[in-house]
Predict the 3D structure of the following.
Amino acid sequence: MKKGFLIIGLLCFTAVTHAQEIKLNAPSKKGGKPLMEVVNGRHSERSFVKKEMPAQILSDLLWVANGFNRNDKRTVPTAQDRQEMELYVMLDDGVYFYDAKANVLKPVQKGNFRKALGQENITSNAAVNLIMVGDLSKAASREYAYFAAGCISQNVYLYAESKGLGTVARGSFNRDELTKALKLSEKKEVMLVQPVGWIK
Ligand SMILES: Cc1cc2nc3c(=O)[nH]c(=O)nc-3n(C[C@H](O)[C@H](O)[C@H](O)COP(=O)(O)O)c2cc1C
């Protein structure tokens, strides 16, 4: 009898601790506008219409930004293949870590942390706000980590243009508040944030 309770207890505990993990769709890796048209259209958007992002688009966006496109290599380059970049996603209910290998969003902290992003006029109507974090304990150098953040940003710009979404790279955020919201350790640095949303 006691053993039964223990198993039920463990199952409940597992359900509670994993309740908020968001399983992502497999990235589609196809379609979109031709590259030359996408590059021709790339631009920054700062005004969004509040609308949800369909699950497939969210999965594809994250994969484009920092997913794996070969066994253990990513869609963006990093110096010496250190893969120091981490991607976090801020949704209305909290912040999540993009675990690209497992293809899930892992909850980091529940709550509304939008203020930490700064420029709420830009960020609050975006469907998602991406946060690029460099792990300087892995990076060949801080400069190279910033370069990698730029690569992620451009991938996001190009995907957004391809899908009729809007986006803008943003360097003006509250570093201390974001560091706390993401529960970052000392060697991890927020480098860039990027809202992605619907423009009509
Ligand atoms: C590193 C970086 C930081 C930026 N920070 C901000 C920002 O904090 N807020 C903002 O509205 N735009 C920001 N931008 C977007 C630029 O203002 C924008 O790219 C520039 O005006 C050129 O416009 P375009 O992207 O449409 O070509 C940033 C761009 C970069 C590359």
